[in-house]
Predict the structure.
Amino acid sequence: MTNGSNGASPGLGFELAEEQKMMQQMARDFAANEIWPVAPKYDKSHEFPWPVVKKAHSLGLTVMNVPELYGGMGLSLLDEMIVSEELAWGCSGIALTITINNLAALPVIVAGNDAQKQEYLGRLVDGKLAAYCVTEPGAGSDVAAIKTSARREGSHYVLNGTKTFISGATVADWYTIFAYTNPDEPYKGMSAFIVERDTPGLSVGQPFEKLGQNASDTAELFLENVRVPVENRLGQEGQGFLVAMQVFDRSRPGVGAMAVGIARRAMEESIKYAREREAFRKPIFRHQAIGHMIADMAMQIDAARLLVWRCAWLVDQGSSNVREASIAKAFAADMGMKVCTDAVQIFGGYGYISEYPVEKLMRDIKICQIYEGTSQIQRNIIVRELFR
Ligand SMILES: Cc1cc2nc3c(=O)[nH]c(=O)nc-3n(C[C@H](O)[C@H](O)[C@H](O)COP(=O)(O)OP(=O)(O)OC[C@H]3O[C@@H](n4cnc5c(N)ncnc54)[C@H](O)[C@@H]3O)c2cc1C
């Protein structure tokens, strides 16, 4: 947040800078014109929305966090949040396909060397996509419990294991993969790697059928004696867990922004509907029970956005945001779930019917409480930080 120009006290301001407003408007227009009209189609077909992703790429939206030095937009995390909210307002499934590079690029940005950045971030700038692979069938919340191994053999590591629930797995050109180089050392024995899609031994499963965000693909990744050159290790051996945690600090705000975008859409649809729909001879918003539900939506959405912006701004200042990112992510995701459930309630029977917009929003929002650390895990972190 930049300082306002009209006498606001220095140090805290709520007005976006001119460039931020322009970027917000650009993303808003893109969401309204390119995403929202095709959202139902991709929700039903479960196809990957390549035409939209390609248009987003032409505007730089698939490489928002790639530094300008490597050809990306080099946005601050706060700027990225402003854009991400708008994209998710259009369709969070499509938004995920556009922003998934941000997640995969993060380990390279935080731990990669110049050659790795030139090559792999450069490919994203050229229009390729990448995916981020931590979760395994037996380990999601408990990141340290992953079983994938990376055994050193001369100038290579040999990776074996299975990753699951990987967003973008079927379309990625390369993957950031976390594996144990020393399986006897929980946490400190983990390392991170860049792995090329066409490496022998790497295969990708069929996309899972899901509750929501159907435009985005989610699949398994199988690693059988996958040979990865030592140059593709990110950072030092044993730094993998630390890298994963640094990624969370920057990726959790994005899920918060996504939840705010989905919730804002649900509120806007609710306002439109509650104005038009009549019951007992008046528009339903004039029934206080409905009006108050919408007032609560506005309160909660505003609060969540401020929390998301604060935790992103902290990263931009070079400050720790562990507690604030967990607060923002859990608050925004839980808020979004409540808002979308209430939106379905406001629509009555029509809320349950796919032809109307809020049914999709309620399906889509649920994942925000699960990925990038569940709402329970965020609370664990908040408690840990408070009692440190
Ligand atoms: C659509 C989708 C996309 C995804 N994309 C990616 C991706 O791109 N890359 C990737 O690596 N992963 C991805 N994930 C994985 C996601 O991050 C995990 O599913 C999530 O972290 C939860 O892990 P889990 O499913 O193993 O659940 P578990 O960890 O088994 O948790 C099950 C339940 O137990 C609770 N729980 C677990 N531990 C605790 C605890 N200590 N205290 C309190 N409650 C606890 C959880 O909150 C949850 O309610 C994706 C998942 C989905 C569904």
Notes: Confidence is low (pLDDT under 50) at residues 1-5. The first strand starts at residue 130 and ends at 133.
